[in-house]
Amino acid sequence: MNSKHIETQAIRTQIDRTQFLEHSSPLYLTSSYVFEDAEDMRASFADEKERNIYSRYSNPNTSEFVEKVCLMEGAERGYAFASGMSAVFSTFAALLSSEDHIVSCRSIFGSTQTLFNNILPKWNISTSYFKIDELDNIESLIQPNTKVIYAESPTNPAVDILDLKRLGDLAKKHNILFIVDNCFATPYLQQPIKFGADLVIHSATKLMDGQGRVLGGVTVGTVNLIQKIYLFSRNTGPALSPFNAWVLSKSLETLPVRIDRHCDSALKVAEFLESHDNVNFVKYPFLKSHPQYDLAKQQMKLGGSIVAFEVKGGIEAGRKFLNSIKLLSLSANLGDTRSIVTHPASTTHAKLTEDVRLETGITGGLIRVSIGLEHPEDIINDLKQALEN
Ligand SMILES: Cc1ncc(COP(=O)(O)O)c(C=O)c1O
């Protein structure tokens, strides 16, 4: 597959056809593979041949999915995981050692924060955080044992934008890895490797599936780094199932058209919310009022599918707003065909202290909407009636 266009890469990257000459890739539900003879088996286990041995190591469906993501992200190699969090955990577990240190943006997914704060410290791996408006201070956080700068952009749930090129340059200057969770943007909107990322991680559960059906994750990057992640994973077992890989690979075929529509509707919803009297502020990367609008325009093709806004009246008004929603779903997922509303202060981020919540932009009245593929008029009407109820 040698097209430079992501739409074609997403569709025309396909494993070899079988003797049945099927048009669409078949599903390979097999846990293991057979060998011609003892020598074939020996050479395969000695890594002298590139072939499938056991589906914890590789599987044709998983390979197809990984190859697509690599092409779309501009990466050399990748490995697919059972979930986004298994991708995040396995990447750090494979690459870091005891006494290593991470410098991370404070605004990252909740379970990744738990990994950094509660799980990695069991192996004496520590993390220092910077706030999204503190990029000038990052160098002061870098220690001799710092191995990684970690970031998500746009951030969850406050939809802030981080300067990926600046972070990439900083990582290079200090000879440390730059790892980006690109889940909110997808490779269609933003390719962090172009800005200096060494590794890119995705929760494929979100927009890559796009229909709220399966869990999955993937890490892509350079051959050397992925080889370490692969060896760790082939022995510890976080592999993506062939069925989920098949679903995800099929879903990638429609990713660009889905994302175009998500973004088009999200901008319309953001503009509507900005004009509403019961809304204090709206955060959407491609709204001119977004504090990092110019940066978002440089880094991203379109503004993404997530809109955050603050209802007037604080935490109680946020809960009341959610109770008034009729069409949209109250659910923990995002990046689905179905639009989803969440109230982070009373749910996903309720366990954080108010100070930490405010540091990451989560005010009492903040609502996050994952804009789905329903007609934008219906999404807007539901939000309108809930705001006016
Ligand atoms: C930015 C981000 N990274 C990682 C994850 C974890 O992914 P998963 O739920 O597939 O484990 C999520 C899940 O919401 C996420 O939003």
Write structural notes for this entry.
This protein is of the alpha/beta class and 389 residues long. The protein has helices at residues 6-12, 38-45, 60-73, 84-95, 110-119, 138-141, 164-173, 186-189, 223-236, 242-252, 255-274, 293-299, 314-324, 354-359, 376-388; strands at residues 77-81, 101-105, 126-130, 146-152, 177-181, 199-203, 217-221, 279-283, 306-311, 329-330, 340-342, 366-370. It has a 7-stranded mixed sheet with strand order 1-7-6-5-4-2-3, sandwiched between helices. A 5-stranded mixed sheet has the order 8-9-12-11-10. Strand 4, helix 7 (164-173) and strand 5 form a beta-alpha-beta unit. Helix 11 packs parallel to helix 15. The longest helix has 20 residues, at 255-274. It is globular and about 75 Å long. It starts with 5 loop residues before the first helix and ends with a helix. The protein binds pyridoxal-5'-phosphate.
List keywords for this structure.
389 residues; alpha/beta; 7-stranded mixed sheet; 5-stranded mixed sheet; 15 helices; 39% helix; globular; binds pyridoxal-5'-phosphate
Mean pLDDT figure: 96
Major β-sheet strand ordering:
1-7-6-5-4-2-3
- What low-confidence regions span 5 or more consecutive residues with pLDDT below 50? none
**Count of DSSP strands:** 12
**Main beta sheet:** 7 strands, mixed
Bound molecules: pyridoxal-5'-phosphate
Helix-and-strand structural type:
alpha/beta
The number of helices is: 15
Reading the helices and strands in chain order gives HHHEHEHEHEHEHEEHHHEHEHEEHEH
Give the CA-CA distance, first to last residue. Answer: 53 Å
Radius of gyration: 21 Å
> How much beta, percentage-wise?
5-15%
Name the shape in a single word: globular
Oligomeric status of the shown chains? single chain
- Percent of residues in helical segments? 25-40%
